[in-house]
Amino acid sequence: MYFADVLRETVGRRGANIAVAAPGRLQTYAELGERAYRLANALTDLGLRPGDRVGMLSDNSIHVPEQIAALAVAGLVRAPLYTQNTAATNTYLARNTGMSVILVEAKYAAALAAELTEPDDARLVLVDDGTGASVSGALDYEAVIAAASTSEPPVHTDVTSPHIIRFSAGTTGRPKGIVHSAQGLQAIANELFTFIDPPTEEDVFLAAGTLSHATGYYVWPLIAAGARITVMPQFDPTTFLSLVESERATLTMAVPTMIQVVASVAAAAERPYDVSSMRAIYYGASPITDATLRAGLELFGPIMYQVYGQSEAVPSTFLAPSEHHLEGEFAGRLRSAGRPTVNSEITIRDGERVLPVGTIGEICVKTPGAMLGIWGDDAATAARFTADGAVRSRDVGHFDEHGFLYLDARLEDVIISGGYNVYPAEIENALAEHPAISEAAVVGIPHEKWGETVAAVVILEPGTVAGEDELIDWARARVGPVRKPTVVVIADEPLPKNAVGKIPRAAVRERYWPGTPDIVGA
Protein backbone atom coordinates (compact mmCIF):
# COMPACT_ATOMS: atom_id res chain seq x y z
CA MET A 1 0.00 0.00 0.00
CA TYR A 2 1.57 3.26 -1.13
CA PHE A 3 1.07 6.84 -0.12
CA ALA A 4 -2.21 7.72 -1.85
CA ASP A 5 -3.73 4.55 -0.39
CA VAL A 6 -2.26 5.32 3.05
CA LEU A 7 -3.78 8.80 3.11
CA ARG A 8 -7.18 7.60 1.89
CA GLU A 9 -7.28 4.83 4.48
CA THR A 10 -6.27 7.04 7.41
CA VAL A 11 -8.69 9.82 6.48
CA GLY A 12 -11.47 7.25 6.18
CA ARG A 13 -10.78 5.44 9.45
CA ARG A 14 -9.19 8.08 11.66
CA GLY A 15 -10.33 11.39 10.20
CA ALA A 16 -11.21 12.84 13.61
CA ASN A 17 -7.74 12.17 15.04
CA ILE A 18 -5.39 15.12 15.43
CA ALA A 19 -2.84 14.82 12.64
CA VAL A 20 -0.68 17.87 13.30
CA ALA A 21 -0.25 20.09 16.33
CA ALA A 22 1.58 23.39 15.85
CA PRO A 23 1.84 26.44 18.10
CA GLY A 24 -1.75 27.64 18.54
CA ARG A 25 -3.19 25.32 15.86
CA LEU A 26 -4.52 21.79 15.45
CA GLN A 27 -5.34 19.92 12.25
CA THR A 28 -7.33 16.69 12.03
CA TYR A 29 -6.64 13.96 9.49
CA ALA A 30 -9.86 14.87 7.71
CA GLU A 31 -8.59 18.43 7.33
CA LEU A 32 -5.11 17.29 6.32
CA GLY A 33 -6.59 15.01 3.66
CA GLU A 34 -8.87 17.68 2.21
CA ARG A 35 -6.10 20.26 2.04
CA ALA A 36 -3.66 17.74 0.57
CA TYR A 37 -6.13 16.88 -2.19
CA ARG A 38 -6.80 20.56 -2.85
CA LEU A 39 -3.08 21.35 -3.09
CA ALA A 40 -2.45 18.35 -5.35
CA ASN A 41 -5.23 19.47 -7.68
CA ALA A 42 -4.08 23.10 -7.54
CA LEU A 43 -0.59 22.13 -8.67
CA THR A 44 -2.10 20.06 -11.48
CA ASP A 45 -4.21 23.08 -12.46
CA LEU A 46 -0.97 25.08 -12.68
CA GLY A 47 0.20 22.66 -15.34
CA LEU A 48 2.37 20.30 -13.30
CA ARG A 49 2.36 16.64 -14.19
CA PRO A 50 3.64 13.48 -12.43
CA GLY A 51 7.42 13.53 -12.24
CA ASP A 52 7.69 17.34 -12.10
CA ARG A 53 9.79 18.66 -9.22
CA VAL A 54 8.36 20.85 -6.45
CA GLY A 55 10.56 22.57 -3.89
CA MET A 56 9.63 23.13 -0.25
CA LEU A 57 11.34 25.83 1.80
CA SER A 58 10.08 26.44 5.31
CA ASP A 59 10.54 25.85 8.98
CA ASN A 60 8.50 23.07 10.53
CA SER A 61 4.87 24.17 10.40
CA ILE A 62 1.34 22.84 10.28
CA HIS A 63 1.55 23.02 6.49
CA VAL A 64 4.51 20.70 5.93
CA PRO A 65 2.75 17.31 6.42
CA GLU A 66 -0.11 18.34 4.10
CA GLN A 67 2.45 19.39 1.48
CA ILE A 68 4.29 16.07 1.78
CA ALA A 69 0.98 14.25 1.33
CA ALA A 70 -0.17 16.44 -1.57
CA LEU A 71 2.99 15.97 -3.62
CA ALA A 72 2.84 12.21 -3.12
CA VAL A 73 -0.79 11.80 -4.23
CA ALA A 74 -0.17 14.07 -7.25
CA GLY A 75 2.85 11.99 -8.30
CA LEU A 76 5.13 15.03 -8.01
CA VAL A 77 8.75 14.80 -6.88
CA ARG A 78 9.33 16.44 -3.51
CA ALA A 79 12.57 18.41 -3.23
CA PRO A 80 13.03 19.91 0.24
CA LEU A 81 15.29 22.94 0.32
CA TYR A 82 17.16 23.95 3.46
CA THR A 83 16.54 27.17 5.34
CA GLN A 84 20.20 27.14 6.40
CA ASN A 85 21.27 27.46 2.76
CA THR A 86 21.84 30.80 1.10
CA ALA A 87 19.22 31.89 -1.41
CA ALA A 88 21.88 31.49 -4.11
CA THR A 89 22.46 27.85 -3.14
CA ASN A 90 18.73 27.10 -3.11
CA THR A 91 18.40 28.76 -6.51
CA TYR A 92 21.20 26.58 -7.84
CA LEU A 93 19.39 23.48 -6.54
CA ALA A 94 16.08 24.61 -8.01
CA ARG A 95 17.67 25.11 -11.43
CA ASN A 96 19.76 21.96 -11.24
CA THR A 97 16.68 19.81 -10.67
CA GLY A 98 14.31 21.83 -12.85
CA MET A 99 11.80 22.71 -10.14
CA SER A 100 8.49 23.96 -11.52
CA VAL A 101 7.15 25.40 -8.26
CA ILE A 102 8.56 26.17 -4.82
CA LEU A 103 6.24 26.24 -1.80
CA VAL A 104 8.04 28.86 0.28
CA GLU A 105 7.36 30.30 3.72
CA ALA A 106 6.94 34.05 3.46
CA LYS A 107 10.03 34.96 5.51
CA TYR A 108 12.29 33.19 2.99
CA ALA A 109 10.55 34.33 -0.17
CA ALA A 110 12.08 37.75 -0.84
CA ALA A 111 15.70 36.53 -0.82
CA LEU A 112 14.80 33.58 -3.03
CA ALA A 113 12.78 35.70 -5.46
CA ALA A 114 15.75 38.06 -5.85
CA GLU A 115 17.81 35.13 -7.16
CA LEU A 116 15.14 33.52 -9.34
CA THR A 117 15.43 35.92 -12.27
CA GLU A 118 15.54 33.56 -15.26
CA PRO A 119 12.40 33.09 -17.40
CA ASP A 120 12.29 29.34 -16.73
CA ASP A 121 12.84 29.59 -12.97
CA ALA A 122 10.37 28.02 -10.57
CA ARG A 123 7.18 29.86 -9.63
CA LEU A 124 6.80 30.74 -5.97
CA VAL A 125 3.74 29.85 -3.93
CA LEU A 126 3.86 31.95 -0.77
CA VAL A 127 2.87 30.31 2.52
CA ASP A 128 1.75 32.84 5.14
CA ASP A 129 3.86 32.50 8.30
CA GLY A 130 2.54 35.50 10.19
CA THR A 131 5.46 37.75 9.26
CA GLY A 132 3.46 39.74 6.73
CA ALA A 133 6.19 39.33 4.13
CA SER A 134 5.12 39.39 0.48
CA VAL A 135 6.70 39.05 -2.95
CA SER A 136 5.43 40.53 -6.17
CA GLY A 137 4.22 37.90 -8.61
CA ALA A 138 4.09 35.04 -6.10
CA LEU A 139 0.93 32.99 -5.79
CA ASP A 140 -0.86 32.88 -2.46
CA TYR A 141 -0.87 29.40 -0.91
CA GLU A 142 -4.29 29.69 0.74
CA ALA A 143 -5.91 31.17 -2.36
CA VAL A 144 -4.47 28.43 -4.56
CA ILE A 145 -5.78 25.75 -2.19
CA ALA A 146 -9.23 27.34 -1.78
CA ALA A 147 -9.81 27.44 -5.53
CA ALA A 148 -9.03 23.74 -6.11
CA SER A 149 -11.13 20.59 -6.01
CA THR A 150 -11.32 18.43 -2.89
CA SER A 151 -11.46 15.22 -4.96
CA GLU A 152 -8.63 12.73 -4.80
CA PRO A 153 -6.48 13.22 -7.91
CA PRO A 154 -6.80 10.35 -10.41
CA VAL A 155 -3.06 9.80 -10.53
CA HIS A 156 -1.34 6.42 -10.74
CA THR A 157 2.43 6.66 -10.50
CA ASP A 158 5.24 4.15 -10.83
CA VAL A 159 6.48 3.46 -7.28
CA THR A 160 9.98 2.80 -8.66
CA SER A 161 10.26 6.25 -10.29
CA PRO A 162 11.67 9.34 -8.51
CA HIS A 163 9.61 10.41 -5.50
CA ILE A 164 11.93 12.63 -3.43
CA ILE A 165 15.23 14.44 -3.96
CA ARG A 166 17.28 14.88 -0.78
CA PHE A 167 20.14 17.32 -1.14
CA SER A 168 23.53 16.51 0.33
CA ALA A 169 24.97 18.93 2.84
CA GLY A 170 27.59 20.02 0.35
CA THR A 171 30.60 19.70 2.67
CA THR A 172 32.88 18.61 -0.21
CA GLY A 173 31.51 20.86 -2.95
CA ARG A 174 28.13 21.91 -4.28
CA PRO A 175 25.15 19.96 -2.91
CA LYS A 176 23.94 17.06 -5.01
CA GLY A 177 20.40 15.79 -5.43
CA ILE A 178 20.02 12.25 -4.08
CA VAL A 179 16.99 10.57 -5.60
CA HIS A 180 14.74 8.01 -3.94
CA SER A 181 11.65 6.24 -5.22
CA ALA A 182 8.37 5.84 -3.33
CA GLN A 183 9.29 2.18 -2.94
CA GLY A 184 12.65 3.15 -1.45
CA LEU A 185 11.11 5.69 0.92
CA GLN A 186 8.64 3.11 2.19
CA ALA A 187 11.50 0.65 2.70
CA ILE A 188 13.30 3.27 4.81
CA ALA A 189 10.18 3.71 6.95
CA ASN A 190 9.81 -0.04 7.40
CA GLU A 191 13.45 -0.43 8.47
CA LEU A 192 13.17 2.37 11.03
CA PHE A 193 10.44 0.52 12.89
CA THR A 194 11.92 -2.97 12.64
CA PHE A 195 13.37 -2.89 16.15
CA ILE A 196 10.56 -1.17 18.03
CA ASP A 197 6.79 -1.39 18.06
CA PRO A 198 5.49 0.54 15.04
CA PRO A 199 3.51 3.73 15.72
CA THR A 200 -0.16 3.59 16.63
CA GLU A 201 -2.84 6.27 16.83
CA GLU A 202 -1.89 6.66 20.50
CA ASP A 203 1.61 7.89 19.63
CA VAL A 204 2.73 11.51 19.59
CA PHE A 205 5.82 12.21 17.50
CA LEU A 206 7.69 15.38 18.48
CA ALA A 207 9.19 16.81 15.28
CA ALA A 208 12.07 18.71 16.88
CA GLY A 209 14.40 18.26 13.92
CA THR A 210 13.45 19.81 10.60
CA LEU A 211 11.09 17.77 8.43
CA SER A 212 13.23 18.63 5.40
CA HIS A 213 15.93 16.35 6.87
CA ALA A 214 15.91 12.88 8.43
CA THR A 215 12.91 13.66 10.65
CA GLY A 216 10.83 13.68 7.47
CA TYR A 217 11.35 9.93 7.05
CA TYR A 218 8.91 9.34 9.90
CA VAL A 219 5.96 11.24 8.45
CA TRP A 220 4.36 8.49 6.38
CA PRO A 221 4.50 5.77 9.08
CA LEU A 222 2.87 8.27 11.43
CA ILE A 223 0.16 9.14 8.91
CA ALA A 224 -0.47 5.43 8.32
CA ALA A 225 -1.01 4.95 12.04
CA GLY A 226 -3.19 8.02 12.52
CA ALA A 227 -0.66 9.30 15.07
CA ARG A 228 -0.15 12.91 16.09
CA ILE A 229 2.78 14.93 14.74
CA THR A 230 3.68 17.84 17.01
CA VAL A 231 5.91 20.27 15.14
CA MET A 232 8.45 22.69 16.59
CA PRO A 233 9.10 25.56 14.14
CA GLN A 234 12.55 26.00 15.68
CA PHE A 235 14.33 23.70 18.09
CA ASP A 236 14.61 25.01 21.63
CA PRO A 237 15.52 22.70 24.54
CA THR A 238 13.13 24.23 27.07
CA THR A 239 10.24 24.11 24.60
CA PHE A 240 11.19 20.53 23.74
CA LEU A 241 10.95 19.44 27.37
CA SER A 242 7.71 21.36 27.88
CA LEU A 243 6.13 19.73 24.83
CA VAL A 244 7.20 16.24 25.87
CA GLU A 245 5.46 16.91 29.15
CA SER A 246 2.31 18.66 27.89
CA GLU A 247 1.78 16.62 24.71
CA ARG A 248 2.81 13.32 26.32
CA ALA A 249 5.16 12.79 23.39
CA THR A 250 6.25 9.21 22.80
CA LEU A 251 8.67 9.35 19.84
CA THR A 252 11.26 11.74 18.50
CA MET A 253 14.36 12.01 16.34
CA ALA A 254 17.37 14.05 17.49
CA VAL A 255 21.00 14.71 16.74
CA PRO A 256 23.47 14.38 19.63
CA THR A 257 23.83 18.14 20.10
CA MET A 258 20.08 18.37 20.71
CA ILE A 259 20.25 15.61 23.33
CA GLN A 260 23.18 17.38 24.98
CA VAL A 261 21.42 20.73 25.40
CA VAL A 262 18.08 19.14 26.41
CA ALA A 263 19.80 17.12 29.15
CA SER A 264 21.71 20.22 30.29
CA VAL A 265 18.54 22.32 30.55
CA ALA A 266 16.70 19.54 32.37
CA ALA A 267 19.54 19.15 34.87
CA ALA A 268 19.49 22.87 35.65
CA ALA A 269 15.68 23.19 35.87
CA GLU A 270 14.04 24.21 39.14
CA ARG A 271 11.71 21.21 38.95
CA PRO A 272 12.00 17.88 37.11
CA TYR A 273 10.24 17.59 33.76
CA ASP A 274 7.92 14.61 33.34
CA VAL A 275 9.33 12.81 30.29
CA SER A 276 8.00 9.36 31.24
CA SER A 277 5.75 9.22 28.17
CA MET A 278 8.71 8.95 25.78
CA ARG A 279 9.22 5.38 24.51
CA ALA A 280 11.86 5.83 21.82
CA ILE A 281 14.43 8.45 20.88
CA TYR A 282 16.17 7.94 17.57
CA TYR A 283 19.50 9.69 17.25
CA GLY A 284 22.11 9.90 14.55
CA ALA A 285 23.77 12.20 11.99
CA SER A 286 26.94 12.59 14.09
CA PRO A 287 28.85 10.75 16.84
CA ILE A 288 27.64 10.95 20.42
CA THR A 289 29.99 11.31 23.37
CA ASP A 290 29.76 9.12 26.44
CA ALA A 291 28.89 12.17 28.54
CA THR A 292 25.99 13.15 26.29
CA LEU A 293 24.69 9.60 26.10
CA ARG A 294 24.95 9.16 29.85
CA ALA A 295 23.02 12.40 30.41
CA GLY A 296 20.38 11.33 27.89
CA LEU A 297 19.95 7.93 29.51
CA GLU A 298 19.71 9.47 32.97
CA LEU A 299 16.97 11.81 31.75
CA PHE A 300 14.92 9.53 29.49
CA GLY A 301 15.90 6.01 30.52
CA PRO A 302 17.03 3.14 28.24
CA ILE A 303 15.10 4.21 25.15
CA MET A 304 17.93 5.47 22.92
CA TYR A 305 18.20 4.04 19.40
CA GLN A 306 21.20 4.98 17.27
CA VAL A 307 20.62 4.99 13.50
CA TYR A 308 23.49 5.19 11.03
CA GLY A 309 23.06 5.86 7.35
CA GLN A 310 23.34 8.49 4.67
CA SER A 311 20.86 10.04 2.30
CA GLU A 312 22.26 7.61 -0.29
CA ALA A 313 21.54 4.49 1.82
CA VAL A 314 19.50 4.77 5.00
CA PRO A 315 19.15 3.24 7.49
CA SER A 316 22.19 0.99 7.34
CA THR A 317 22.81 0.04 10.97
CA PHE A 318 21.00 0.21 14.29
CA LEU A 319 22.21 0.24 17.89
CA ALA A 320 19.37 -0.81 20.18
CA PRO A 321 18.93 0.32 23.82
CA SER A 322 20.07 -3.11 25.04
CA GLU A 323 23.43 -2.47 23.34
CA HIS A 324 24.03 0.92 24.99
CA HIS A 325 26.50 -0.26 27.64
CA LEU A 326 28.06 2.56 29.64
CA GLU A 327 30.25 0.27 31.71
CA GLY A 328 31.80 -3.17 31.58
CA GLU A 329 33.03 -5.51 28.89
CA PHE A 330 30.81 -4.16 26.10
CA ALA A 331 31.12 -0.42 26.82
CA GLY A 332 33.25 -0.03 23.69
CA ARG A 333 30.22 -0.77 21.55
CA LEU A 334 28.99 2.75 22.20
CA ARG A 335 31.71 3.81 19.79
CA SER A 336 30.09 1.64 17.14
CA ALA A 337 27.26 2.45 14.75
CA GLY A 338 25.52 -0.79 15.68
CA ARG A 339 24.80 -3.78 13.50
CA PRO A 340 23.25 -3.93 10.02
CA THR A 341 19.49 -3.52 9.88
CA VAL A 342 17.39 -6.54 8.99
CA ASN A 343 17.43 -5.89 5.25
CA SER A 344 20.87 -4.29 4.90
CA GLU A 345 23.99 -6.06 3.71
CA ILE A 346 27.21 -4.23 4.55
CA THR A 347 30.69 -5.04 3.35
CA ILE A 348 34.04 -3.33 3.93
CA ARG A 349 35.93 -2.93 0.67
CA ASP A 350 39.12 -1.81 -0.97
CA GLY A 351 37.80 -0.94 -4.40
CA GLU A 352 35.77 -4.01 -5.36
CA ARG A 353 37.63 -6.35 -3.00
CA VAL A 354 35.75 -7.34 0.16
CA LEU A 355 37.98 -7.10 3.24
CA PRO A 356 38.02 -9.38 6.29
CA VAL A 357 36.65 -8.57 9.74
CA GLY A 358 38.79 -6.04 11.59
CA THR A 359 40.28 -4.50 8.44
CA ILE A 360 39.60 -0.84 7.73
CA GLY A 361 38.12 0.03 4.35
CA GLU A 362 35.21 1.75 2.64
CA ILE A 363 31.75 0.90 3.99
CA CYS A 364 29.51 -0.34 1.15
CA VAL A 365 25.80 -0.91 1.65
CA LYS A 366 23.04 -2.85 -0.07
CA THR A 367 19.65 -1.86 1.32
CA PRO A 368 16.07 -1.48 0.01
CA GLY A 369 16.38 2.18 1.06
CA ALA A 370 19.25 2.87 -1.34
CA MET A 371 19.06 5.83 -3.68
CA LEU A 372 18.16 5.54 -7.34
CA GLY A 373 21.06 7.83 -8.12
CA ILE A 374 22.31 11.42 -8.15
CA TRP A 375 20.07 13.78 -10.06
CA GLY A 376 21.32 14.61 -13.54
CA ASP A 377 24.77 13.09 -13.05
CA ASP A 378 25.21 9.60 -14.46
CA ALA A 379 28.97 9.63 -13.88
CA ALA A 380 28.61 10.56 -10.20
CA THR A 381 25.90 7.93 -9.80
CA ALA A 382 28.08 5.22 -11.32
CA ALA A 383 30.98 6.22 -9.07
CA ARG A 384 28.82 5.69 -5.97
CA PHE A 385 27.95 2.04 -6.73
CA THR A 386 30.07 -1.09 -6.72
CA ALA A 387 29.91 -3.52 -9.62
CA ASP A 388 27.40 -5.66 -7.69
CA GLY A 389 25.13 -2.76 -6.74
CA ALA A 390 26.25 -1.71 -3.26
CA VAL A 391 26.30 1.99 -2.43
CA ARG A 392 29.79 3.33 -1.74
CA SER A 393 29.30 5.34 1.44
CA ARG A 394 32.59 7.27 1.28
CA ASP A 395 32.85 6.42 4.98
CA VAL A 396 35.79 4.39 6.20
CA GLY A 397 35.17 1.77 8.87
CA HIS A 398 35.53 -1.79 10.07
CA PHE A 399 33.55 -4.62 11.67
CA ASP A 400 34.44 -6.32 14.91
CA GLU A 401 34.08 -10.06 15.44
CA HIS A 402 30.55 -9.60 16.81
CA GLY A 403 29.24 -7.79 13.73
CA PHE A 404 29.31 -4.23 15.10
CA LEU A 405 30.30 -1.55 12.61
CA TYR A 406 32.78 1.16 13.61
CA LEU A 407 33.23 4.37 11.65
CA ASP A 408 36.81 5.52 11.34
CA ALA A 409 36.55 8.49 8.95
CA ARG A 410 35.21 9.91 5.74
CA LEU A 411 37.48 9.00 2.84
CA GLU A 412 37.91 12.75 2.29
CA ASP A 413 38.96 13.21 5.94
CA VAL A 414 41.65 10.54 6.27
CA ILE A 415 44.93 12.15 7.34
CA ILE A 416 48.10 10.67 5.85
CA SER A 417 51.01 11.57 8.11
CA GLY A 418 54.42 10.15 7.33
CA GLY A 419 52.79 7.36 5.34
CA TYR A 420 50.41 6.38 8.16
CA ASN A 421 46.64 6.65 7.78
CA VAL A 422 45.15 8.56 10.71
CA TYR A 423 41.38 8.46 11.22
CA PRO A 424 40.00 11.65 12.80
CA ALA A 425 37.16 9.92 14.68
CA GLU A 426 39.66 7.91 16.74
CA ILE A 427 41.47 11.02 17.92
CA GLU A 428 38.22 12.90 18.46
CA ASN A 429 36.93 10.07 20.65
CA ALA A 430 40.16 10.05 22.67
CA LEU A 431 39.98 13.80 23.24
CA ALA A 432 36.26 13.63 24.11
CA GLU A 433 37.14 11.37 27.05
CA HIS A 434 38.98 14.27 28.71
CA PRO A 435 36.71 15.69 31.41
CA ALA A 436 37.26 19.28 30.27
CA ILE A 437 36.30 18.70 26.62
CA SER A 438 32.72 19.00 25.42
CA GLU A 439 33.41 18.81 21.68
CA ALA A 440 36.37 18.12 19.40
CA ALA A 441 37.14 18.16 15.69
CA VAL A 442 40.30 16.77 14.11
CA VAL A 443 41.69 17.65 10.67
CA GLY A 444 44.89 17.27 8.72
CA ILE A 445 47.04 20.30 7.96
CA PRO A 446 50.18 20.48 5.83
CA HIS A 447 53.51 19.58 7.43
CA GLU A 448 56.89 20.09 5.76
CA LYS A 449 58.33 16.76 6.93
CA TRP A 450 55.33 14.44 7.29
CA GLY A 451 53.12 15.74 4.50
CA GLU A 452 50.27 16.20 6.94
CA THR A 453 50.02 16.43 10.68
CA VAL A 454 47.09 16.03 13.05
CA ALA A 455 45.44 19.21 14.31
CA ALA A 456 42.55 19.43 16.77
CA VAL A 457 40.07 22.14 17.69
CA VAL A 458 38.31 21.66 21.03
CA ILE A 459 35.54 23.32 23.01
CA LEU A 460 35.93 23.19 26.79
CA GLU A 461 33.14 22.53 29.24
CA PRO A 462 32.05 25.73 31.04
CA GLY A 463 34.21 26.45 34.08
CA THR A 464 37.00 24.05 33.13
CA VAL A 465 40.61 24.70 32.18
CA ALA A 466 43.00 22.66 30.02
CA GLY A 467 46.17 23.54 28.12
CA GLU A 468 47.44 22.47 24.71
CA ASP A 469 50.33 20.39 26.08
CA GLU A 470 48.03 18.63 28.55
CA LEU A 471 45.60 17.66 25.79
CA ILE A 472 48.35 16.47 23.44
CA ASP A 473 49.75 14.28 26.23
CA TRP A 474 46.26 12.97 26.97
CA ALA A 475 45.77 11.97 23.34
CA ARG A 476 49.29 10.48 23.05
CA ALA A 477 48.54 8.15 25.97
CA ARG A 478 45.45 6.86 24.16
CA VAL A 479 46.30 6.79 20.46
CA GLY A 480 50.10 6.76 20.44
CA PRO A 481 52.74 9.18 19.20
CA VAL A 482 51.99 8.84 15.46
CA ARG A 483 48.29 9.67 15.70
CA LYS A 484 48.35 12.23 18.49
CA PRO A 485 47.59 15.84 17.53
CA THR A 486 50.63 18.08 17.26
CA VAL A 487 48.47 21.19 17.39
CA VAL A 488 45.47 21.84 19.63
CA VAL A 489 43.38 24.99 19.36
CA ILE A 490 41.14 25.75 22.33
CA ALA A 491 38.28 27.61 20.66
CA ASP A 492 36.13 30.28 22.24
CA GLU A 493 33.33 29.99 19.68
CA PRO A 494 31.11 27.03 18.71
CA LEU A 495 32.42 24.64 16.07
CA PRO A 496 30.75 25.05 12.66
CA LYS A 497 27.86 22.70 11.93
CA ASN A 498 26.04 21.97 8.71
CA ALA A 499 22.31 21.73 8.11
CA VAL A 500 22.01 18.31 9.76
CA GLY A 501 24.11 19.10 12.82
CA LYS A 502 27.38 17.52 11.69
CA ILE A 503 30.73 19.25 12.09
CA PRO A 504 32.13 19.57 8.54
CA ARG A 505 35.85 19.10 8.94
CA ALA A 506 36.55 21.10 5.79
CA ALA A 507 34.84 24.10 7.42
CA VAL A 508 36.89 23.62 10.60
CA ARG A 509 40.07 23.52 8.56
CA GLU A 510 39.10 26.63 6.61
CA ARG A 511 38.20 28.58 9.77
CA TYR A 512 41.39 27.83 11.69
CA TRP A 513 43.85 27.11 8.88
CA PRO A 514 42.45 29.10 5.92
CA GLY A 515 43.67 28.23 2.48
CA THR A 516 44.56 24.66 3.45
CA PRO A 517 43.47 22.28 0.65
CA ASP A 518 41.18 19.30 1.17
CA ILE A 519 43.21 16.10 0.91
CA VAL A 520 41.58 12.85 -0.18
CA GLY A 521 42.83 9.79 1.62
CA ALA A 522 43.64 6.40 0.17
TrEMBL record:
Organism: Gordonia asplenii
Record's protein name: Long-chain fatty acid--CoA ligase
Keyword Protein transport: no
InterPro entries to which the protein is assigned, alphabetical: AMP-bd_C, AMP-bd_C_sf, AMP-binding_CS, AMP-dep_synth/lig_dom, ANL_N_sf
PANTHER family: ACYL-COA SYNTHETASE, MEDIUM-CHAIN ACYL-COA LIGASE ACSF2, MITOCHONDRIAL
Domain AMP-binding enzyme C-terminal positions: 426-502
Any Pfam family matching the protein: AMP-binding_C
Record's keyword annotation contains Ligase: yes
GO-annotated molecular function: medium-chain fatty acid-CoA ligase activity
The entry's keywords: Ligase
